[in-house]
């Protein structure tokens, strides 16, 4: 029981760290923290979401999509969230793309 609680605390702490970095606009630091987290817990969906969000903040849409493809390999039940998020992000990137003169 204690080991399970400690494990839960560790991932919640890591998730908070990445979220705080993202909120502070420290996207590159968040990206590297999320990459370390995925290396430690590759089957936890939250790790993939954290890295995808960091890529998104950095404007790296292709990398975010790749991370989410990996998420679907370990957690296929996340498809509805992935599809919804990608649709939103692709719309935003399309709307913010420079227009031809």
From TrEMBL:
Higher taxonomy: Bacteria, Pseudomonadati, Pseudomonadota, Gammaproteobacteria, Lysobacterales
InterPro entries: TPR-like_helical_dom_sf
Pfam families: TPR_19 (PF14559)
Protein origin, superkingdom: Bacteria
Protein name (database record): Tetratricopeptide repeat protein
